Amino acid sequence: MTLYRDALIEDSDVSIFSILTAMSQGDRTTLLDIVNLVRNETPGYTYLEVGSDQGGSIVAPLSDSRCAAALSVDLRPASQPDERGVDFNFPENSAARMRKLLVEAGVPRGGMLKLRTFDADISALTMSEFGRLSDLVFIDAEHTNKAVFRDFVKVRRFMKSDAIILFHDSQLIFDALINIETMLDDEGVDFCSLYMPTTIFGIAFGKYEGPFRHCFEKVSYDKNLYIEKSRLNLRAEIAANQKRS
User: Fold this and answer.
1) How far from each other are the two terminal CA atoms of the chain, in whole angstroms?
2) CA–CA dist 60, 32 (Å, integer)
3) Residue 37 three-state SS
4) Is 217 left (phi over 0), alpha (psi -120 to 50) or beta?
């Protein structure tokens, strides 16, 4: 079973995502492409996810024999705000339910054993609780600019200097991403950041910077055009939501 799932990951086969997830098919392919980059560069990598919901995106690292540990951080709110001006509800939102769904989705026993869950805000956790630094981070929690920027600031404590961090729904939280890039530039940090297909934004640090740019720069969006289009679409969606309310 594990070897079979490794083959799915190596082929970027989105059928491995057998749990309901908000990620589009393009997002799933991009995530698997990134997982492949990391697993090839760093066998035994650690994956950290902020905002797991039902576990739809953490399936791949858990099913990957080259992933040594998968950490899930999720405060598990009943609802949370969003940049679109609406609140999104998360019924039955618990780590226990996520574990049940992962088992039902066929995640191998070895994969489940490397899963650690934290029902907490990332800002409340310490390195002693984590016990290890992460190579790959995926932020997909509250989709407000304030929350995304805060999550990035707080999660950096748990990242290696050689790491990749991904953000879902970049078309909503682009202002936070601009602020993050500005902060890194001000700090003099070397990094490569790309708006990747379809709504994933990635930042690569250290040894990943070159491979990340080589693999994804040609298929990524022009930043200025992407942000301009996203801003117009977001304004229209906010206006439509206000009209409905």
Assistant:
1) 49
2) 7
3) helix
4) alpha
The average pLDDT across 23-43 equals 96
pLDDT tens, residue by residue, 62-121: 999 999 999 999 999 888 899 998 888 877 889 999 999 999 988 989 999 999 999 999
Q: Which pLDDT value is given to residue 4?
A: 61
Q: What is the mean pLDDT of the chain?
A: 93
Contacts of 123-131 with CB under 8 Å at 24 or more apart are 123/150, 123/154, 125/73, 125/158, 127/157, 127/158, 130/48, 130/71, 130/158
Residue 47: its pLDDT value, please?
A: 98
Reported as a single tens digit per residue, the pLDDT across 152-210 is: 999 999 999 999 999 999 999 999 999 999 999 999 999 999 999 889 999 999 999 99
CA–CA dist 96, 55 (Å, integer): 11
**How far is the C-alpha of 118 from the C-alpha of 130, rounded, in Å?**
9
Phi, psi for 151 (deg, rounded to 5): -60, -40
pTM: predicted TM-score of the whole model, two decimal places: 0.95
User: To which H or E segment does residue 87 belong?
Assistant: strand 87-89
Judge whether 204 and 192 are in contact, CB under 8 Å: yes
What does the alpha-carbon distance between residue 67 and residue 77 come to, in Å, rounded to a whole number? 28
Domains with residue ranges and CATH for the chain: 2-244 (3.40.50.150)
Residue 231 and residue 195: Cα distance in Å, rounded?
A: 14
With CA atoms as reference, report the closest residue to 166 among 31, 74, 61, 22: 31
Buried b (16+ CB within 10 A) or exposed e, 48-62: bbbbbbbbbbbbbbb
